[in-house]
């Protein structure tokens, strides 16, 4: 079990933090200790000045291989401009909260904030600037809600803020980070990011447990974590994202932070950026001559534009949001009135919308590709009485059936199209959706973070599917080195 150690500037500050606290001088002279438990150092010293006690505390902690908050990198990032900036749209506050109600300064302690309405904003600030104490100043701007984030010291807090920080730090001190087994040593440590409240997660519990088992066989300890409790990424060697990704989301920010910290990451931030935006994908498909359905970008809902779409595509046609997953943000329109209504609705949220020819098939191919190699194959059948594999408006018949088969049973043109589409994105783990009609393959999209559920995608390969993915992690970790 990892022990928390709070480091403060002087003895006067010791009364403000939990019992397991020391001054900077004590940490400098008495640590590391012989046979000490693994430490996570919470640096509460002032870091506003270069070469201050706070700066050296984090620098020494990293040199001593103690997990530390904040890292030297975060200290430098916040000190470079004196402030970190974040932008939020009003949706993050919820319908019952006005941005004008919460403007002003707020203390963020270990990602917690006194005003529960600001919990998502505080967690975002903590994810972006992982420091124990932050001052978040919210202001209403024309383009949204802006948060100025600065690092603050314990001594600079008001009495009310000190009491709040004491409670949060005491609670944090009681938490355990990773548990280390006494009987078995692991070569690598990996965080597997999940969202326990996600309605349609990329992997079910059966698949997650099989990933963990496969990792153990290869010397990788996998800890299942959420964005709220992941802590410092520096304590891990790899990050495996099993939560639905998006660009304006903590999954992308954590992937980017992990990659910058030298972790092996899947999905890597570049893959998330490319896969999550269908505008990029279809433009790249056209440039790289990947076989795909006829697609156009729509930027307005003027009469001339809509009449042109109707003339070129006919009805029905499909309108898509640039970002979306699990058949969300995809609409079939069957009349001029419906075309205008849906187009205006989508353009109110996005500067571009995709218009695509409609092609009905009884099933879509899903080809799983890892590092440029076909790994698994499935046929996803359309949901009952629906034109997509998912029907979010029907709980009883939410999804259709499936088949899982060997990749050598997949038609050659389908397999070739899948590998060509994956190469457009990168060398990660992807799920390529393809329609097949009259011996021709049409790529719909490339999904980072593809669905991997026990009893579905692993129906043919079984546990070997999880071993293959973890083996690729192991290979990349060995190439990276310790």
Automatic annotation (TrEMBL):
Keywords: ATP-binding, Ligase, Manganese, Nucleotide-binding. Pfam families: Dala_Dala_lig_C, RLAN. InterPro entries: ATP-grasp, ATP_grasp_subdomain_1, Dala_Dala_lig_C, RLAN_dom. The keyword Ligase applies. GO terms for molecular function: ATP binding; D-alanine-D-alanine ligase activity; metal ion binding; ribosomal S6-glutamic acid ligase activity. One of its GO terms (biological process) is SOS response. It comes from the Bacteria. GO terms for cellular component: cytoplasm. This is ATP-grasp domain-containing protein. It comes from Teredinibacter turnerae (strain ATCC 39867 / T7901).
């Amino acid at each position: 079990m990892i022990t928390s150690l709070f480091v403060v500037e002087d003895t006067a500050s010791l009364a403000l933090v939990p019992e397991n606290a020391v001054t900077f001088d004590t940490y400098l002279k008495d640590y590391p200790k012989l046979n000490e438990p693994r430490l996570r150092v919470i640096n509460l010293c002032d870091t506003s000045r270069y070469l201050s006690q706070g700066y050296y505390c984090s620098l020494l902690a990293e040199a001593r291989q103690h997990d530390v908050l904040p890292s030297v990198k975060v200290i430098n990032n916040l000190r470079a401009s004196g402030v970190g900036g974040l932008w939020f749209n009003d949706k993050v506050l919820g319908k019952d909260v006005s941005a004008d109600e919460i403007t002003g300064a707020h203390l963020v302690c270990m990602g917690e904030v006194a005003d529960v309405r600001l919990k998502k904003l505080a967690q975002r600030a903590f994810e972006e600037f992982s420091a124990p104490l932050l001052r978040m100043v919210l202001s209403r701007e024309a383009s949204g809600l802006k948060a100025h984030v600065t690092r603050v010291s314990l001594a600079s807090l008001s009495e009310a803020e000190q009491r709040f920080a004491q409670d949060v730090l005491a609670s944090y001190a009681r938490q355990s980070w990773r548990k280390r087994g006494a009987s078995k040593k692991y070569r690598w440590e990996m965080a597997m990011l999940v969202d326990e409240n996600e309605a349609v997660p990329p992997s079910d519990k059966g698949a997650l447990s099989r990933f963990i088992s496969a990792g153990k066989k290869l010397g990788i300890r996998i800890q299942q974590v959420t964005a709220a409790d992941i802590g410092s990424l520096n304590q891990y060697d790899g990050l495996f994202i099993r939560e639905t990704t998006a660009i304006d989301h903590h999954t992308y920010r954590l992937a980017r932070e992990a990659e910058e910290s030298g972790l092996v990451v899947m999905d890597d931030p570049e893959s998330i950026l490319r896969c999550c935006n269908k505008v990029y994908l279809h433009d790249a498909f056209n440039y790289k001559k990947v076989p795909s359905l006829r697609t156009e970008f729509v930027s307005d809902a003027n009469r001339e534009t809509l009449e042109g779409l109707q003339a070129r595509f006919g009805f029905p046609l499909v309108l898509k949001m640039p970002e979306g997953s699990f058949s969300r943000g995809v609409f079939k329109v069957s009349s001029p009135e419906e075309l205008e209504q849906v187009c205006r609705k989508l353009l109110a949220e996005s500067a571009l919308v995709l218009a695509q020819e409609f092609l009905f098939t009884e099933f879509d191919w899903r080809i799983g590709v890892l590092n440029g190699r076909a790994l698994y194959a499935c046929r996803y059948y359309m949901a009952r009485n629906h034109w997509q594999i998912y029907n979010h408006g029907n709980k009883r018949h939410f999804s259709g059936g499936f088949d899982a088969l060997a990749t050598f049973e997949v038609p050659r043109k389908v397999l070739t199209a899948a590998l060509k589409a994956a190469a457009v994105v990168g060398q990660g783990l992807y799920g390529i959706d393809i329609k097949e009609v009259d011996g021709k393959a049409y790529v719909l999209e490339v999904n980072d973070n593809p669905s991997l559920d026990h009893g579905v995608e692993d129906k043919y390969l079984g546990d070997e599917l999880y071993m293959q993915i973890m083996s690729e992690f192991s290979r990349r970790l060995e190439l990276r080195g310790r």
